[in-house]
Amino acid sequence: MPKLRLSFPWFDRRAFPVLAVVVAGLYLLEEVFTLREQQHGKVKRTVINTAVAASGFTVARLALLPIMVYAGEWADRRRFGLIQWLPLPRWAGYAIGALLLDYTNYLWHTLTHRMPLLYRFHRVHHSDLDMDVTTGFRFHLGEQVFSIVYRGGMIALTGAPADLVLGYEAIFEGCTAFHHSNLRLPPSVEAALSRIMITPSAHGIHHSVVRDEFDSNYGVVFSFWDRLHGSHRTDVPQEQITIGIPAWQDPAELTVPKLHTMPLAAIRPWQLPDGQLPRSRKLISDLA
């Protein structure tokens, strides 16, 4: 598989340094242009999130990327998958392929909320009690393993070639860092961007302890999948959002060892520790 040996190092040599600069830049900018007031120490959370992400990041680099690339190369060689079967010029196939890849990731995200097994792992990500760019890589190893199977299969079914897979993955990771950041955008920029892509404000709503807010804004890159499925929301002011999972509000339960074993714990009722159901406190008109 010569392309696999060439493509994977290309991603790490070229895309990864750029992504590292993007993450570092967002980490600094969100301290100046702050979207939500932080309730917990950022340095401590950064250490925790990095420690949780370490194993998942290793899996992503050693298994997820190569398998995704292999799936794309396999589809290209066998002329298998939707965009391989359609009589389209290459540029159109790539455009449709990118949209399909993003849509399959929207569907994956909804599955991690709705399937109890996947939610056990995904709640590690949502249990962060504040949200910034470091939340964007706080994913449990188990969730990464399940995503390998799903994303590899979706790449084969869509027929996305390996170079498109790698290009989309770079955009995917950059957008994940961006919309998890605590970066406040100018209102006009926020309104314009939110029509097309998931912004920090929109994804902040997704990390709310209020259930119907938590079940919204599943997109990774584009916001129109949420609009299509009726899960798009921009009607909640950021200062009214409480970040996290209502039943996991005690920092003592969110240490690195306990986060690694959280998927083994029972799924708790969607209520605050005192038994109350979290509710929205205020709504604003939709920006979109």
TrEMBL record:
The chain crosses the membrane at residues 15-35, 47-71. Residues 95-231 form the Fatty acid hydroxylase domain. It comes from the Bacteria. InterPro entries: Fatty_acid_hydroxylase (IPR006694), Sterol_Desaturase_Related (IPR050307). The keyword Transmembrane applies. It holds the Pfam family FA_hydroxylase. It is found in: Membrane. Its main location: membrane. Coiled coil: none annotated. The keyword Acyltransferase does not apply. Keywords: Membrane, Transmembrane, Transmembrane helix. PANTHER family: STEROL DESATURASE. This is Fatty acid hydroxylase domain-containing protein. The lineage of its organism: Bacteria, Pseudomonadati, Bacteroidota, Saprospiria, Saprospirales.
